[in-house]
User: What shape does this take?
Amino acid sequence: MPDRIDRRNEWAGPISRRQFLGGAATLAAAGIGAGLVVRSGARSPQVMQSLAPVCMAMHVHACASEGPGSMAAQLVQAQLAGVDVLWWTEHDHRMTAHYAPGRLAMSGLEETSPDMAPWTWTPVNTGNPLTTRHDFVTADAHHELGGRAHALRLAVSSNRRQVGRHFLSGQAENFLNRTSLQGLTISIDVLPQEVSESGYVGVEVVTSYRPEATGQPEGVYSLSYRVGGGSLPGVSKRIDETSALVSVAAPTGAWTTITLTPQLDLARLWPGVDGRDASLHALSLVANAIEGHSADAHFADLRFSRTQVDSSTALAAQRELMASYAAQFPTVQQLQGLEISLTIPHLCWYGGTVTLPDLAGLGPLPSHDLQVAVSSVQAIHDGGGIASYCHPFGTTTTAIPAPDQEIARAAKASELIRNRALGCDLLEVGYRLRGGCTLVQHESLWDNCSRNAIFLTGVGVSDDHAGRDWIDNARNFATWAWAADKSEAALVNALRTGHAYFGDLALFRGAIDLRVDGQSVMGGVRVVDAETQSISLLVAGLPSGGTVDVLVGHVDLAGADDTQPTIRRSRLSEGDFDEADTSTIEVDTTRSCFVRLVVSDSSGKTAALSNPVWLLRERTKITIPDNRKL
Assistant: This one.
């Protein structure tokens, strides 16, 4: 594994043949960039410029999605991994708190409402409680609730010299309560009946994971809002490095509305922590007692008020956070994207003017209506962006049996061929395992599209939600775009034209390209009339003892009923490449075909993959998009 360094994206400096790190100056020093010219845009021959690979982390989530990660955590990982560009792709519906809870009546362990996802409370005991109770009561002659229709009575008693803790942990269906803390206020009515220095009731909020920084310890940050417990009302203090308590005034025997602002409390209790960069990861109602004491209270009318709930404010809030972190992480260019998630498949939006879709009429769970997905792709294109078909086999992370993988592969290939991949520009290919299927199945799906002249740029992504150790993560693929600079326009153009490759951050840090007559052709479509075509292969940074497989597949327009593409594979080793890291092959072009590369390490593990070049016979009647024409 390469050593971890903080700045692998420098644009100058010495480079050895097997330590390619990217950048215009280093490319020239290695003999790689010298004389390299490629066509940009629609591959117009009038526009030629030298390019360098830019390492991008694509499909990355943070505090506005359901995972525990924060933007700070993801940026630290991007910096440690030597990534040049990080694309933020938070879930659209979570950014606007679509179907997130607004008000809970406290009427039972399960609550439903037409305008929110179903909510479930899960009772939990920790320590060694003597007795516990959680009763949901309705106002009647026996339960005076001060005008409230329902309430929860939560209580615990403890054994002597031991802690007794009883709490209800709440979550919405599909974790739709997990939204950003930015602009969030939580209010709840509480009627304390028994609290003391040795017993308290309250609300506990678990927020996001944060990396270690100056004055900021590493860990998941939590806040405990307490009535009772020995601290004077109004006192706030840290319990340990990553948890704190806020003592709240609420007299026993009377109803009091307490209002919680966790965003502000995080920033106040941990100076230097940006409270906007955190999620409402978990919420619990708690009764806690020690040394034979008890804690008892009624809770009612739990409310969540959010200010960042529409397209303009939510995206603007994200841009503000991006700007606030820019100086702290100067080596990582941040770009705003989006994951459109209330459709199957999920779609990522890269480039153009990103806008949050109108979700009116859509429920809390993704729609399987393909027209919703098609309309979403069109919206991305109308906004000047490119659309990526996300995790095509689904989001599960456990492998399914090999026969089931084959069934899933064939079914998804047929689907994508029939609907032409919904008009997407990119396909997420670089997953070791996703949706129960291995990288081999993802590659086959891609090859089936390529043989049917569905021109998709393959990309490698992480879909990371945690912000922990990108290098050793099971999903650690990045994508390198050949671009003139790190501007959004240059990177989107490279992705749109297929001038990109992708690979494992732990195994590959080099460069890959396919060239004809000194011109880059990776991602492009070339019409040929000769019986053979010479292609120069650039593979800089081949792992020691590694190999390069050249895959040639027929473009036979087989259709959706034949999903077993004919692939010819030839293997090259380090000795087949010259000092400029290039090797030339001859491809049989008597039939239309596509050519792509797979780089493996000495153990045979896939390290990186190129995008294909398509070589079509003149007689082939295929419409070639302008951006792919060579």
